[in-house]
Structures
1.
Amino acid sequence: MTATSSPAVNQNTATAPAARAIPGLPADFRWGVATSAYQIEGATDTDGRTPSIWDTFCRVPGAVERGENGDTACEHYRRMPEDVAMIAGLGVDTYRFSVSWSRVQPHGSGPVNPAGIGFYDRLVDELLERGVTPWLTLYHWDLPQELEDAGGWPARDTAYRFADYAEATHAALGDRVRHWTTLNEPWCSAWLGYHTGEHAPGRKDFGDSMHAVHHLLLGHGLAAQRLREAGGADLELGITLNLGHSTPATDDPEDVRAARSADGMGSRLYLDPLVHGRYPEDVVAELGDRGVTLPVQDGDLETISAPLDVLGVNYYSAHQYSGTAEDGSTTDAEGRPVVRGVPHGRPRTAMGWEIVPEGLTRLLVRLEREYGVPTVITENGAAFDDELAEDGTVPDTDRVAYLDGHIRAVADARAEGADVRGYFAWSLMDNFEWAFGYQKRFGIVHVDYETQQRTVKDSGLWYRDTIRHTRGG
Ligand code: IFM
């Protein structure tokens, strides 16, 4: 995810809402915390793991702030049992984590590495022993470098390699893991990885990024077929998209056009093929104007649109758009229609992202109406400049207010008929925030990177108590 250049809100000055039951969330509502492999595991050259595109990208001068990388991260690979105990202590029922493809298949294809899969085998057992349901994501941005060298996601073959990896991982863990997410936020993989170059592998080619979109979705569909074949009726299968809520800044037709264009490129380009089996015509036309054709082959859209049990939604902010530049023109220097973000004027997180909880309600209601797949919030949370106080607490009142507002927004969406079944806080603990390194802290648990000491923040305690009260405990 990218930051904006706008200043952050005054940090941790809000008055924290007390933990109490959130009305409108049913007893079987799923409560979780989420992480991803590269952001927390460390041990990047342990037990046969090979480099992923993020290991390589972090070594490019200037790619990541302060030249940081995931070599050590939160040492979760070594500290996993104590981290699982901490997760259980937060009172959540579900832990969403991702598997590192480079640990499981060090060459991106071929035989499974027993030591690599062994880590996830132990993690799953540890979770189940503590009564926490594992929710597994197969791909959270860390493509094995060898596959990038062979063409990466712009190459069709990567989709087939992904399906093989999915099948191999399921063969090892599918007897105990029921909840499978194929991809996390394919927009980020395609757009940030291959168009803007802000994320690994750092390529900057618009056409390649759009080919990556199709092959990521195809990889999802092929993997889904294999998982369905292997997993039977018990499997719960989904994909996670990062979705905002895009609105026109005014009812000027140019603003309406700009908001629709942003929504097309950011949301409908993924949702429409996944759920309706077709790419949106306006986006296809826009790509055509830019000389790009999606590399769709016969049968691909049927593969991509096989039914989903759940749609994972990662929500952080909402965006308004104008179709007019500040100088009054409606086309940019390259002659393309202007799509300009216009702030809502709301407080911002340390990422510069505006805090717009009602955007989550609107998004969920819209997803229900236009796509009709049950949803789970697989990520929601905020970075703030937290500090460990002298009394050993982390008084992150801004994060408590953020979580409270967004969980209430989920309850509001349910009241309007959206079938939202769970909420996972991003993130369990502070971790490697990609191109921003370790300075952006999203955790409800503080991590001291010198000592690796974990301290549950006030938001973590609030989350634990809110879950308990809402369940009626
Ligand atoms: O940290 C990321 C995560 O890996 C994917 N979703 C957004 C988070 C915050 O940027």
2.
Amino acid sequence: MDISRFKGRSLLTLLDYSPEEIRELLDLSKLVKAQQKRGEIRHRFTGKSLAMLFEKRSTRTRCAFETAFGEEGGHPVFLSTADIQLGVKESIEDTARVLGRMFNAIEFRGFKQSTVQTLAEYSGVPVFNGLTDEYHPTQVLADILTMEENFGDCRGKKLVFTGDGRNNVARSLMVICAKLGIDFTVITPLGLAPDRDLVKICAAATAASGARILVSDKPDDVKGACAVYTDVWASMGEEDKKAERVQLLKPYRVTQALMNKTGEKDAIFLHCLPAIKGEEVNADVIDGPQSRVWDEAENRKHTIKALMLATINGTAD
Ligand code: CP
Ligand code: NVA
């Protein structure tokens, strides 16, 4: 597989990647997952270092980057905002310049999309968006990989996201589905509908892919979905909105009755995690036979390893 054209690139949002490039990253993810399952560890990041910047908490994203890079011989360095200057006593541009002199790549999780953009602009090394208020691109690579493991080619299949339609995960799912030709329905109260400009951009991408994008406030529109996805009702940084969101989003909870409304007996349940059982999803669904959330969490690691091999090394050899 020739992945040399990825070398040196950042992943800030999947809007910057073509459908073919996303396809290649997913195929590479399958390859690195199979290699790991066979026990093949190739030390492909030996002599390399990764700066991991976190303004927000993380379990999966941190552990996926850290283990994927470390087990291939690389040196990941975790830096929370309690440890480093990042727009506090030093501009983000200057921190980026310094990190770019010492590290082969940078991962960033935090609030503003502009921070991850600035890091990419001034560091001169690949920068990976590990979640911002706007996007969570590495998450949705793992989500689509999980869908493909269950259904094979997902073009023309329907994925439903129910919950906070404005959030980073819903937005990123819309982008990847539009590009890959997967039908995507967001079921959300009108006040939490996704940003119109993003819907327009995604609608433009569907012209080539054939995907259908629908924004609805009716849970019945889950019909025909092969995958039902939800996320927390108040994302990190929005804790003050929690009470209001609980009232708004109660009708959008994933229950077994909602799963049954898909009319698809093989439908699966997905969640980026962490989940609050009894809020956005009932325990019998997330812990039940239709749930694929643990595969989905594991797939964070394989997709992130593939992304780093492509962009840092430009080769998977
Ligand atoms: N899904 C996800 O990003 O999980 P963490 O917040 O634990 O990294
Ligand atoms: N929307 C959630 C995703 C967590 C992985 C958040 O931003 O908190």
